[in-house]
Amino acid sequence: LAKTTQPISMDSYEGQEVNITCSHNNIATNDYITWYQQFPSQGPRFIIQGYKTKVTNEVASLFIPADRKSSTLSLPRVSLSDTAVYYCLVGGPYSGGYQKVTFGIGTKLQVIP
Amino acid sequence: KAGVTQTPRYLIKTRGQQVTLSCSPISGHRSVSWYQQTPGQGLQFLFEYFSETQRNKGNFPGRFSGRQFSNSRSEMNVSTLELGDSALYLCASTSGSVAGANVLTFGAGSRLTVL
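Output (structure tokens, whole complex):
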């Protein structure tokens, strides 16, 4: 079961690019890397998912090096509304057996005006 | 497309009581998982159900239990409530298929306060 390590908190000014790195040294071959965003008193919300190299969508980019032991979520030009907790989740497909989902404690991003 | 619905959103109980929380997954999703979130512990996995069977269970005492119905709706129950059970309880659904990684869709949560 891949354990993840992220910074506990980060501060950024509005308009800057924010990069949050997650370490997952024992990621398994079938594991995907998924990032979620959570606002207070709400459930986490899917941001982006990747397996290797780079993935980009309308809100973020995800960079995964060749060894896949870490990943970096990149948020371009953050705004105050991006203040939230970001979770890195590593897990694989349900292969008919059992898959336990493990979240870390997340990274609390504070965007400053 | 309706999202994941959790009820009730807020509830207050006293120590020793029991509570039942409900989760209706996204239509077509067969996997429902439950999580406890507290300020100090973050998001902790409770258990996951797929097609009415518990597929996995986290490290929680037996006071925490769950079940899933044939329509994929799920309930979790906490008996003999303790003060430390005060938390936001989240459920998430996913297709649970064997192909690809499954993206979890979370509900808004049920905020339980134990007095």
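Chain B touches chain A at residues 4, 31, 33, 35, 41-45, 48, 50, 55-56, 58, 88, 90, 92, 96-109, 111 (CB under 8 Å).
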